[in-house]
C-alpha cells in the first residue's frame, strides 16, 4: 500500500515579490494586465467578486499564497492563514468542487485580522452578510451554505490549478470587477515594463472615442490589400 501523505504540507522557503514590484500593480485594471500578456492571464470567468454593490472593495492586488485543498476541504486554507503575511492574497483551490463553501464570514474576518489583502477561490463561499461585514474583498464561484471539512490532505505555498489557470505561490494576483488575473512570478518585471505604454495608449484611445472616433483602419487596410472583400 502506498504510504499516505501528511495531512498538511507547508512549504518553508516561499518566494515573494519585492514590495516595489507589488506596489506597481496598485489600481491597475485587469484588462491592462491581460493586454501586457498577449491577451491572456485571467482565471475562468466563473470566478467573480462575491459582492458587486460597493459594500466591498472591487480591486485587490498582492502576491499569491496558494492553498491546494481537495474537494470540500479547507485544511490547506487554514494552513495558509497560519503563515500568511500582510498583503498576501490567499488563493484557495478546491479543484472546482461545487455545493460546498470554501470559506465563510469568520474565516474572512480572521484573514482580515491577519492583514490578508483578499481571498480568491474556485469554490463557493457562505455567510454573505458576515463576509461583507468582515470587509475582506473576495472572488469566488458563487454561494453555498454547506460546510467544508478539514481532514486533508492539503498543501500550502506550492501551486495549484484553478479555473483553467495554474497559480504558483509568489505570482502576482490582481482582481477587480472584471475578474482575477495571474501574473507569473518570472514575468512580473516584464509586465511592469509594459504598463506605462499600455496606460498611455488607453488614455489616448479613450479621448479619441469620447471625441467621436469610430473608424476601423485595420479593416480598411484589409479591404485595400484584398485580405477582406465586400460580398
From TrEMBL:
Coiled coil: none
Binding site for Mg(2+): 127
Cofactor(s) this protein cannot do without: a divalent metal cation; Mg(2+)
Binding annotation for substrate: 126
Record's keyword terms, sorted: Magnesium, Metal-binding
Top-level division of the source organism's lineage: Bacteria
Gene3D superfamilies tied to this protein: Ribonuclease E inhibitor RraA/RraA-like
UniProt GO molecular function: metal ion binding
A Pfam family of this chain: RraA-like
Protein name, per record: Putative 4-hydroxy-4-methyl-2-oxoglutarate aldolase
Species annotation: Marivita hallyeonensis
Amino acid at each position: 500500500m502506498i504510504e499516505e501523505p501528511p495531512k498538511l504540507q507547508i512549504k518553508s522557503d516561499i518566494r515573494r515579490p519585492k514590495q516595489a514590484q507589488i506596489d506597481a500593480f496598485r489600481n491597475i485594471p485587469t484588462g491592462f494586465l491581460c493586454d501586457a500578456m498577449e491577451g491572456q492571464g485571467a482565471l475562468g470567468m466563473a470566478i467573480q467578486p462575491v459582492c458587486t454593490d460597493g459594500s466591498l472593495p472591487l480591486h485587490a492586488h498582492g502576491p499569491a499564497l496558494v492553498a491546494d485543498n481537495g474537494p470540500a476541504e479547507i485544511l490547506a486554507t487554514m494552513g495558509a492563514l497560519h503563515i500568511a503575511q500582510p498583503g498576501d492574497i490567499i488563493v484557495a483551490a478546491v479543484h472546482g468542487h461545487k455545493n460546498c463553501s470554501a470559506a465563510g464570514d469568520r474565516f474572512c474576518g480572521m484573514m482580515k485580522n491577519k492583514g490578508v489583502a483578499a481571498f480568491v477561490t474556485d469554490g463557493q463561499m457562505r455567510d454573505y452578510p458576515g463576509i461583507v461585514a468582515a470587509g475582506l474583498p473576495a472572488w469566488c464561484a458563487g454561494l453555498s451554505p454547506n460546510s467544508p471539512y478539514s481532514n486533508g490532505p492539503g498543501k500550502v505555498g506550492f501551486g495549484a490549478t484553478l479555473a483553467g489557470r495554474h497559480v504558483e505561490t509568489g505570482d502576482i494576483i490582481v482582481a477587480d470587477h472584471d475578474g482575477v488575473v495571474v501574473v507569473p512570478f518570472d514575468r512580473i518585471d516584464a509586465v511592469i515594463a509594459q504598463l506605462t505604454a499600455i496606460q498611455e495608449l488607453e488614455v489616448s484611445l479613450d479621448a479619441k472615442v469620447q471625441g467621436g472616433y469610430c473608424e476601423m483602419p485595420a479593416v480598411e487596410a484589409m479591404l485595400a490589400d484584398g485580405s477582406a472583400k465586400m460580398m
